[in-house]
Design a protein that fits this description.
heterodimer; A: alpha/beta; ten-stranded mixed β-sheet; six-stranded parallel barrel; 13 helices; 24 strands; 33% strand; B: alpha/beta; nine-stranded mixed β-sheet; 9 helices; globular
Chain lengths: 505, 426
Amino acid sequence: MGALETEEQTDLREGVDRETIQTVKAMSGTYKYGWDTEIETEYAPKGVNEDIVRLISEKNGEPEWMLDWRLAAYRRWVQMEEPRWAMLHYPVIDYQDQYYFAKPKSMAVKPKSLDEVDPKLLATYEKLGIPLKEQMILAGVEGTETRKVAVDAVFDSVSVGTTFKEELKKAGVIFCAISEAIREYPELVKKYLGSVVPQSDNFFATLNSAVFSDGSFVYIPEGVRCPMELSTYFRINAENTGQFERTLIIAEKGSYVSYLEGCTAPKRDTHQLHAAVVEIVVLDDAEVKYSTVQNWYPGDAEGRGGIYNFVTKRADCRGARSKVMWTQVETGSAITWKYPSCILRGEEAQGEFYSIAIANNAQQADTGTKMVHLGRNTKSRIVSKGISAGRAQNTYRGLVSMHPRATGSRNYTQCDSLLIGDKCGAHTVPYIEVKNNSSRCEHEATTSKVDEDQLFYCRSRGMDEEQAVALVVNGFVKDVLQTLPMEFAMEAQALVAISLEGSVG
Amino acid sequence: MAVPQAKVDALAARIAGLSFEREGWLGAARVEALSRLSSMGLPGKRDEYWRYTDPTDLIQPRTATAALFDAGDEPPVFDAIDRITLVFVDGVFDAAASDDPALAGVEITRLSQAPDLHWARDLYGVLEARGQSPVQRPLAALATAFATDGLLIRVTGKAAKPVSLVYRHDSETSDAILHHCVRLDPGAELTLLESGPGAARFTTAMEVEVADGARFHHVRVQGRDHQRRAATHVFARLGAESLFKSFTLTANGVLTRNEVVLELAGDDGVAHVAGAAMGDGAFHHDDTVFITHDAERCESRQVFKKVLKHGAVGVFQGKILVKQGAQKTDGYQISQSLLLDEDCQFLAKPELEIYADDVKCSHGSTSGAIDETALFYLRSRGVPLRSAQALLVLAFLAEAIGEIEDELIVEDIRQRLENWLARHEY
């Protein structure tokens, strides 16, 4: 980041959003979450095989049926080939050269409450800005109402704790680690696990089905509006270790939940694998809002290190008038392969996808969504903003499919790409399949560079070039930021500035 | 990657009955094309750019029969245009039915005579080979290797008259393979017209070199034959300040795949590719267009419109690739379909791949039924339903037809469309 002037000076100027300046200033420096926690870690032996799958299952104290499910997935995975259709270039991944299970030793005996959790772990989350305390979390702006956010914290392969569990229980909401849900609520897990993303879905999801170690489980009973926002914070700490988490959210009839997800990892010279699966089941009249701020370590400017992020996220809108809203801010990871999707099965179901994907330096992102319209009068909206800088490649890949029976359905897609610098790439690969005539499909995409006039205006007001670019970019992504819950919007806005650092000049 | 055995076998079966000429410069080009083809194999349903179009009918060893079509009292296409007509019957040049090629003021030679023209030697199979990457087009290589006829057209100045290639279909089982080369010298200008179904199965490739400052206009009408199967390819390379304009009107045909592969190689080039397709019933129409910007300040436009009814299927795969350094590119692409009844399908993959930052590229794609409010308005003004529908269909296609420069040709196409729509037949 170029030298920022003092706040007082900045304040004097018109047309400069003070919040942006402050957040940019606060975030100046390099990847903020790149430190690691020195903690004794217990690893499973390197590599993946049936014994490792058994070991993970045993560590989690799982019943027989779960082990069988994992083994079935593993046996399929061995037969599968890694997909290479995405516009991503990375060396062959040696799946045997990494750890599939890493757990802080202090978690050997699962703490009964947050008070018993290793202070080092609590300090880690505190430092990340996610205090694992049952306290009000400030909404970020003074004077606004305070809100509660329940947090499930996943550290490498295990969940270290979940806040506000009891209070949620009173409302009938189950929010816990998935490992716990498998033991405590086997009927629910059995019924829904793999029902949205089947074991055999794709290479990475199948691997996840075999080796997932933890993740979050959410169950919102009929008619319940979840009293607070739920969030899961994923942290990869151990070296050479993959993280494979699995999230399952079930929203019964007429329920509502807003779920947030955040992720970071320390700076390492080697690539680390992250292959998650998120399944969401939405029944009649229910609504799920799922927001992600993905800030895995992106690697350095030369492309050394960084997370390989291969994620399968899918929501099944089974019920009539059910609704899912995916919002993602993708700023981290060396490689992003991620397509949060909606199966719009119920009549009048709605799916929305809002995405900001930022790729800088040597980052590569291939991300988008699938909207599969199966039910009548279903609606979907896609707003994707891709920003490329440095030598990065950023691809929007999406599918909108209107089945013959999905009559009267609507889709609107807007994909905009912004290029900063002449060595990066921005690509759009939409698939549009319309198989009935009463549905309407609209797709628009544009690619442009940062508007010179806007930049000039900002510069003429005394901003330096990087500040000006950050401001213009913030304007470019505003549509998406607005759909994020407040705390995330603040964080995301700051991330947009930080991710573009060094992209100018 | 090794070609799967099934593809190797399919290719062997497809080319088994075809004659192959190894002699001379042309033979050498054909040998190279065959080797390209062998390394790719014929297209298969699982290939990325064949996911929406089943190539089976285009690759099977023998073509399905296609009944001959009688257009009745309809005047021939481009009848009102003063032109030189060159006729091919089931893919074989018919000199007796054709005008004297010399009248066009351009050099026209028959491929089967294989004269050793240095310009043709530098062009035949060359643009096709360049067009094989990053996406393979095996049927184009097939046309280069096995073309039984075709024309070598060289334009050195402004052509006196448009050259009209008429493809007649006289045999129900004809399986024609053609390959044309067109070379426009710097500053030259030519209008090339193509019409007719060609054959029961028609596989063609045309390579067009448009030198600096040259202008090439291409207007094509792919007949109304219901049972035609066609795979056509146009490969063009554009020099600085050159112009390339291509428009295709397609009416019916069981299966039509039109590929256009353009390379803007010189600064300030302009390329417009447009298509209007109308399909009724068993109709599968596929436009696959790749435009590569490899020079500065070039403009490209893709405008594709499809009107579909009774289960017709429309496919559009279009790509704008802007290479690094192709600054100030202006790329535009629109693909739209009008689905006149329930069981039609529109499948589209409009792509952008951009490696330069100072560019303006956009694409849009829409599909849906006819606008009920517009229809209601027209009917409330006393326009009968059929006429109102015809009017709205014409309005929908207008943007694509508007890409043709010659007003006389626009009028010919428009009247033809009106006529078809009035009779409620294509």
